[in-house]
Design a protein that fits this description.
Shape: globular
Family: Belongs to the G-protein coupled receptor 1 family.
Strand order of the largest sheet: 3-2-5
Membrane topology: Multi-pass membrane protein
CATH superfamily: Rhodopsin 7-helix transmembrane proteins
Domain G-protein coupled receptors family 1 profile: 41-290
Number of strands: 5
Strand content: under 5%
Largest sheet: 3 strands, mixed
Radius of gyration: 21 Å
CATH topology: Rhopdopsin 7-helix transmembrane proteins
Subcellular location: Cell membrane
Number of helices: 10
Protein name: Olfactory receptor
């Protein structure tokens, strides 16, 4: 195969979700609907938390940032995918591809760590309620948030820098609907051992550290809940954590399925489905999960709606 250095490569051609012309327009409207729900849900939750002073607590501070991250990384991927459904040539410049890769990884890694920060917040709230305001002070929350975005930046830089050093083949057709690590490495003409090692190490850290944090937090939470004598108290504690557990399961399950399996076991077409789940479905479901299953959010929403109706 003819090799071409990535620094001279001007563009990639994205294969997209499917090569069947008859389903492009229906898919466009389907994913446009998904994206509208994602935007309205996440921006609505951001606005609701910002306007309601009763929601200015550490739990909703992290939820505010989760919604911001979901909105951003869904926009990074979905907008380009929507354009691909209605364009004849689904191309993306080399610079555009590396930019999309960086911001996608930045927001995805940040989401994994914001979910672990939320788990820690629930642990403190349930296991040490008397010390909650001291332990989760504004300064602590800000430091945790800086750690979240710091890890996101570090993970994105590591992957993007390694990808920019790859020598790609003249055949620049990427079998995916976005610029992601594994599909791009398939187009490499030289050894990708270092890149694959970086994937397993960095992704292992970005999934492993938050997962361990979440498991430890919920193990301690479960132990604390089992010591609550009243049924009502147990039920309230479980309901406080249920939304977060669902969000964590959806995000980490699909992410681990995509990145922590060798490509020989997971064909790229199946990888597209897995990627589709955590780039499109999860950001859409998160605001629904946290609003429909959260009493405080529903009460705040009713107050705003009633206030607007009265006005």
């Amino acid at each position: 195969m003819t090799a071409e250095n990535s620094s001279f490569l001007t563009e990639f051609i994205l294969a997209g979700l499917t090569d069947q012309p008859g389903v492009q327009i229906p898919l466009f409207f389907l994913f446009l609907g998904f994206y509208v729900v994602t935007v309205v849900g996440n921006l609505g939750l951001i606005t609701l938390i910002g306007l309601n002073s009763h929601l200015h607590t550490p739990m909703y501070f992290f939820l505010y940032n989760l919604s911001f991250i979901d909105f951003c990384y869904s926009s990074v991927i979905t907008t380009k995918m929507l354009i691909s459904f209605v364009s004849k040539k689904n191309s993306i410049s080399y610079a555009g591809c590396m930019t999309q890769l960086f911001f996608f990884l930045f927001f995805v890694v940040s989401e994994s760590f914001i979910l672990s920060a939320m788990a820690y917040d629930r642990y403190v709230a349930i296991c040490n309620p008397l010390l909650y305001t001291v332990t989760m002070s504004p300064q602590v929350c800000l430091l945790l948030l800086l750690g979240v975005y710091g890890m996101g930046f570090a993970g994105a830089m590591a992957h993007t820098a390694c990808m920019m050093g790859v020598t790609f083949c003249a055949n620049n057709l990427v079998n995916h609907y976005m610029c992601d690590i594994l599909p791009l490495l398939e187009r490499a003409c030289t050894s990708t051992y270092v890149n694959e090692l970086v994937v397993f190490v960095v992704v292992g850290i970005d999934i492993g550290v938050p997962t361990v944090t979440i498991f430890i937090s919920y193990a301690l939470i479960l132990s604390s809940i089992l010591h609550i004598r009243s049924t009502e108290g147990r039920s309230k504690a479980f309901s406080t954590c249920s939304s977060h557990i669902i969000a964590v399961s959806l995000f980490f399950g699909s992410g681990a399925f995509m990145y922590l399996k060798p490509s020989s076991i997971l064909p790229m077409n199946q990888g597209k489905v897995s990627s589709l789940f955590y780039t499109t479905v999860v950001p859409m479901l998160n605001p629904l999960i946290y609003s429909l299953r959260n009493k405080d959010v529903k009460v705040a929403l009713k107050k705003i709606l009633n206030k607007n109706a009265f006005s």
